[in-house]
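ENCODED BACKBONE
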Amino acid sequence: MAQRGSVEISPRGGGEKRADSCPACGAPMDAEELAANLRVCPACGHHFPLSAGERIELLADQGSWEEIATELRSDDPLGFYDLRPYHERVEEAEYETGLSEAMLVGTARMHNMDVVLAVMDFRFMGGSMGSVVGERFWRAAELAAEARYPMVAVCASGGARMQEGMLSLLQMAKTTCAVEMMASVPVPFVATLTHPTTGGVMASFATLADVIVAEPGALLCFSGPRVIEQTVKEKLPEGFGRAESNLEHGQIDMIVPRRELKDRLVQVLGMLE
């Protein structure tokens, strides 16, 4: 039986330091006004990051969230050590975020529609995908297939978790197989890509959904623009890798502002079902 639990909404929101002004337009920021506007700048529409808890609060009907796979924790199969042991970095991430991993999975209702949610949190080691993230996504997909619930993933990731070596890279194949499992039932799968979604997550389940939605301005690419520029020794086009560029080139299906996201997702899921 899957363990069920709850998620605390972090008082620090998306893990970003509370700014006195918007980093995009420079408009002065009032914390209460920003929170009331779902952490979107009222002047220019810049979307500040959200924590996994805030994402769930945004999407799930009140009181409907039930978490699964809470017992899973990261191991240290390689005894990895850089400047610090891997297990210390995981413990630090747990302490700072109040989470057990970079992805939370569970069931919820969205406007009374039963769904499975898989929500990533960039604050936890850059939203990196290790073996636990891959296993949690698999269990979420398995539950969606068994219960015939549509699945919604909210992605925010810097890519594979290098401290787990090859095991982290194998999660790309594992999550791809999970998407294939849902497609064989079939149950709808919609991915929402938020800033940033990169690396192995972008190259696996995030871009295999039936419908791919993005938040405005989100960075969506396999490698960051600076890394690419340093590699090819050329200046990239303005807006490279942003949601708007991805939409223009057919890599995603739509860009949806945060305030409209829940309604649009329910509308899309209803059409797919």
The first strand starts at residue 66 and ends at 68. Confidence is low (pLDDT under 50) at residues 1-17.
